[in-house]
Amino acid sequence: MIELAPSILSADFARLGEQVRAATEGGASIIHVDIMDGHFVPNLTVGPPVLKSLRKVTKLPLDCHMMIENPDDFIPAFAESGADWISVHQEACRHLNRTLHLIKSHDCRAGVVINPATPVETLTEVLDIVDYVLVMSVNPGFGAQKFIPGVLHKMKQLAEIRNRRGLNYRMEVDGGVALETVGDVVRSGAEILVAGNAVFGEGDPRKNAEALLKAAMEAAMIRV
Ligand code: DX5
Ligand code: ZN
Asked: For 6-26, what is each residue's pLDDT tens digit?
C-alpha cells in the first residue's frame, strides 16, 4: 500500500493547520515533521510545541524525523507532545539498539533512517526491531533539493532482506519526491512517500497531494 506523508518543512507555518487539512483532503495519510538541531544537519526547525499544536488539528499519525544529535534526550518530550512515529538516523546514534527501544517504550513506532552515503548493511542488526526504514534520497537539512536516484537500489535490498528474514518493517523514502521522480520511487518498492516541496511549495496542497498520489498509484500498477 502506498501512502503519502507530506513534510511540513515547506508549508506556510503561519497557516499550518489549514495547510495540513488541505493536504489531508488530497489524500495524505501521515504527516511528516522534520526536526533539525543545527548540529547533525545545518538547519534548524521546530520542537515539541509545534507537535503539540499539530496534534490538536489532525488525527493522522505524526511522523517525527529526528535529524538531531543525542535523540535520546528529546524522544520523551516528542512522544508526550503527540508523536506517533519517531525515526532516528543511524549516523546520529551511538547506541542505536537502545534508542530504538526507548522510542518503543514510549508507545511510538520506531524507525531508522540512513543518509544517501550510508549502506543498508549498517542496519543488519536492527532490522528486526524497527517498524520502518527511511531511506534519504537527498542529504538531509533542507527542502526542495534534487533527488538522488542512486539510492533507489536500497529499496530492493530492503525488500529482499524483509522477505528472506520474514520481517515486516515498512519502507519510506524522503527527499526530492515529486511528479517527475515519484514513478521511479514507487517502482523501486517504496511504500511511504515523503514530499515537502511537491505538496506545499506552490499552488494548492490538496491538488498537489492528489496529483502526486495519482502518479504514485499509476506507477504502482506497473511495479516490477
Ligand atoms: C530533508 C527533510 C525532508 C524534506 C523533504 O532534510 O528530511 O523531509 O522536507 O522535502 P522535499 O520533498 O522538498 O525534498
Ligand atoms: Zn524528513
From this structure: 999 999 999 999 999 999 999
* Bridge partners (DSSP) listed for residue 37: 44
Ligand 1 close to Cβ of residue 205 (< 6 A): no
Cα of 194 to ligand 2 centre, how many Å?
A: 7
Distance CA 12, CA 202 (A): 11
Q: Where do the structural domains in the chain lie, given as residue ranges?
A: 3-220
Per-residue DSSP letter, 44: B
Environment of ion ligand 2 (residues, CB < 5 A): 34, 65, 174
Distance, C-alpha 140 to centroid of its chain: 11
Q: For 128-148, what is each residue's pLDDT tens digit?
A: 999 999 999 999 999 999 999
Q: Please tell me the distance between residue 165's alpha carbon and the centre of ligand 1 in angstroms.
A: 30
Model confidence, pTM = 0.98
Run of H or E residues at 195: strand 192-195
The answer as to CATH 3.20.20.70 being correct for domain 3-220 is yes
